[in-house]
Design goal:
Strand content: 15-25%
Structural class: alpha/beta
Shape: globular
Number of helices: 13
Helix content: 25-40%
Distance between the termini: 17 Å
Radius of gyration: 20 Å
Length: about 350
């Protein structure tokens, strides 16, 4: 494919603090740049990310802007000249940013929804926050972190022109197996979310209470100070992405918990699934429709619906089977869920979109 000029306006690529967007964008931009494309990533400069930047601007070009006026003044020509401009979910002032992009862009446009079920739930409540309902049909391409029936809903109910599944991914150079004696029987990494907390309570904290000799850990920011943690659950506020692999490898099992809106929608794999799988660490996950499309349940991922099931897995599963589950998941992730796969998919979507226009 010929070299493309691509502009991405996303939530963050400089800081993974409190968000799952940055690591996804880093892998995608790196692979697009590796394919020879000219990629400019534009990020709103906000204090909470400025205080927690955890990656250099190593691939493509990253630029920070202070507000919508600054964005317009400095980057109008870049947006006008680009072959493809993509706006992501949760971009600050995303509706205004998106309208400006749609008015300004001289090439193709797309919206990258890393939070599709949350987006549609917000729109149903009349609070789009970062995209207005009528804008969905104005973007040439709608990339969704969620696949399955929600793609048909986007086309049918919102007029999306090219709704396409565009799942998260992992970097096999960063997430790979290693020899390390586990420190914890079960670990979990995720920013506090009120709708995920009941599952964390059921699938980790209650097992920790029932098994005082077990070793557990929870990593992630924004957990309320008043939360009472069992004595055998250690807490880490933030794990730098460069330390994610070490964190996974220090666990015998890792826990995956899915946002409630995404459970209801199904077909919404978390980036943590692919990261942990890349490291060969066996995953215990809550259940959502479509998970079998990514990992075979029982063979590549373990599904827990209760504290008792979690304890059965982490205490009773033979070591050989534990390791085999992790290895089977790793091979599945490598076969179709790396950042390189996503870059090639995006190339194809852009090619199809440009052919249509």
């Amino acid at each position: 494919m010929e070299k493309l000029k691509i502009v991405i306006l996303g939530l963050s690529i400089t800081s993974s603090w409190g968000n799952g967007h940055a690591t996804t964008y880093r892998g995608l931009v790196r692979e697009l740049a590796g394919l020879g494309h000219d990629v400019l990533f534009l990020e709103r400069d906000v204090p909470w990310y400025a205080a927690n930047r955890d990656a250099p601007f190593a691939f493509g070009t990253t630029a920070l802007y202070s507000d919508l006026g600054d964005l317009r003044d400095r980057f109008e020509q870049d947006v006008r000249d680009a072959d493809f401009v993509m706006v992501g979910s949760y971009v600050p002032d995303g509706i205004a940013v998106g309208r400006w992009v749609l008015e300004t862009a001289g090439g193709a446009t797309g919206f990258y929804d890393i939070d599709t079920p949350v987006t549609l739930a917000r729109l149903a409540r009349g609070n789009g926050q970062y995209i207005a309902k009528e804008m969905i049909s104005q973007y040439g391409l709608y990339l969704s972190f969620t696949g399955g029936p929600i793609l048909e809903k986007l086309a049918r109910d919102y007029g999306a022109n090219m709704p396409r599944a565009f799942y998260c991914s992992f970097d096999p150079e960063l997430y790979r197996p290693g020899v390390k004696e586990p420190n914890w029987d079960l670990g979990y990494m995720g920013t506090y979310s009120r709708d995920r907390q009941p599952a964390l309570e059921s699938l980790m904290l209650e097992p920790a209470r029932r098994w005082p000799a077990g070793r557990f850990t929870v990593a992630g920011p924004l957990y309320p100070a008043e939360l009472q943690w069992p004595a055998n659950v250690s807490r880490v506020d933030h794990v730098n992405p460069l330390k994610h692999r070490d964190f996974y490898l220090a666990q015998k099992f890792t826990l995956n918990i899915t946002r409630a809106d995404m459970v209801r929608a199904g077909y919404s794999p978390s980036v943590r699934l692919f990261e942990a799988a890349g490291c060969g660490v066996p995953i215990i996950s809550d259940y959502w429709e479509g998970i079998e499309d990514f990992f075979a349940t029982g063979a590549e991922v373990l599904i827990s619906r209760s504290a008792a099931q979690t304890l059965e897995f982490i205490r009773d599963l033979p070591e050989a089977e534990r390791l085999a589950i992790g290895e089977r998941a790793r091979m599945k992730a490598l076969a179709g869920h790396t950042a390189a796969h996503r870059a090639r998919e995006l190339e194809g979507y852009i090619r199809d979109l440009r052919f249509q226009i």
